[in-house]
Amino acid sequence: MSLFFGDSMITPAMSVLSAVEGMTLVLPGFGNWVVPVTLIIVVALFWVQRTGTEAVSRFFGPVMLIWFLTLGVLGAMHLLDDSRILQALNPLYATGFIARNGLDVLPVMGSVFLAVTGAEALYADMGHFGRGPVRMSWLAIVFPALTLSYMGQGAMVLSHPENADNPFFLLAPAAFTLPLVVLATAATVIASQSVISGAFSVSQQAVQLGLLPRLEIQHTSDTQQGQVYLPRVNLILMTGVCALVLAFGSSERLASAYGIAVTGDMVITSILAVIVFRYAWKWNWLAVLGIMLPVLAIELVFFSANLMKVVDGGYVPLMFAAVVVTFMLVWMRGTLLLQRKLSAESVALDFLVEQLTDSPPTVVPGTAVFLTADSKIAPPALMHNLKHNRVLHERNFVVTVEAATTPRVPEDRRIRVEQLAPRFWRVWLRFGYMEQPNVPKALAGAKAQGLRFDVMSTSYFLNRRSLRVGKARLMPLWASRLYAGMYRSASEPTNFYRLPSNRVVELGQQINI
């Protein structure tokens, strides 16, 4: 995930830069304008994210189809410039080249890998389309078109070595260079959109799984649940992409950073596949290693080759990945320690319910919903309400929102209810990591389980914690301060859980961490 975030920054910067650089073939004096024009396109790309891509995405398919057909046709036109290029279809040629040159082949492998750096985009946003359409489009269109394009460029360079600096745009006749640049720019923007959408989806999943603090999530489509927009993630990505464009200034210099992020993604994905095959699908080790060992061997060779580029810019995705991992580890560790601290200082919910049943305070009409992360302890908001207001509602729901390990949870498995006393219910709500929690809607759908819930007579009690870094800290000083800052920056639970703001009551609590 951390490397994918780095890739989500590098891909737009690399793709748009390389496309805009093609203008120098049409306008030789355009070199000084490459970076400014790239920045304008990048800012515009991230600016339109807030409106969603549903309206413009209908043009993505036709544009990309034209793009790949163009790649295939241009490559086929030059395929016979030098027939030796056909040897590239034989894997033995590549293995023989590696065997003859040994470790000296690593720099070449690092450069060759740039031909497949878009492969991670195949699964970056697969949740929107599914495996079938991705597989069909790859085998029927993308793979043949890319193969023809790269072989055509190789044949042209073999026959005309002077074209090695920019072989792609030189595939087209001079009169078609400008239209090709425009088409390439459109295609790179669309390709960048896929990793940006993927970053939004991955961030949403990370929040649901507790790897990151709550983030504001906006749904940009009435029909596609997976189309989401995260303003904070969008701003971070835009800032990072612009910084990369300004720092590197050309696609050639940025290529060093590109390879490590993608090969790292691939190696980690393959390792995760091994874990899934063996422990989730219960395959035997012979089948797992028979399939994945050759894949991992190839990926590790490319990863090793790209590690040689660390000093030339490859450190960028590694540094960014380290930052993301640090944030996630601090958040998970801090949340765990904070929950343990609160549990140790809290009253058991069953005990409190028993006491309130035996000696109830003043009962007021209506329903109270208390959100809590631990269903076994009395929610702090409930304790504060009893302490300060000295009242108890007719119906009290202690609600715990849980994240499932599946993308979505069927409605008939969404809610679980346990009645503790005549006035108390313990409720568990489960949401998949691709779903946006909606507590009122889920509770309203629980009538089938005998849960009486009236939206208009319900109040939601939330505990607003204020974290202070004290002398007796749960973590090192830097980690405690980082966790406190992340906690303060988390989005409001009212918005995150889709609670009606005019029916929310917040009660404060200071906690030393």
From TrEMBL:
Q: Which GO terms describe its cellular component?
A: membrane
What residue stretches are annotated with the K+ potassium transporter C-terminal domain? 365-513
**One GO MF term, please?**
symporter activity
Where does the record place it? Membrane
Q: Which organism is it from?
A: Paracoccus solventivorans
* Protein name according to UniProt: KUP system potassium uptake protein
Pfam families in alphabetical order: K_trans (PF02705), K_trans_C (PF22776)
Where are its TM segments located?
A: 30-48, 60-80, 105-124, 136-156, 168-191, 229-249, 255-276, 283-303, 315-332
Entry keyword Nucleus: no
Q: What is the protein's major site of localization?
A: membrane
Q: K+ potassium transporter integral membrane domain spans which residues? A: 1-353
Which family does the similarity line name? Belongs to the HAK/KUP transporter (TC 2.A.72) family.
Q: Which InterPro entries match?
A: K+_transporter, K_trans_C, K_trans_N
Per the record, membrane topology reads: Multi-pass membrane protein
Write the record's keywords in alphabetical order, separated by commas.
Cell inner membrane, Cell membrane, Ion transport, Membrane, Potassium, Potassium transport, Symport, Transmembrane, Transmembrane helix, Transport
- In terms of domain of life, where is this protein from? Bacteria
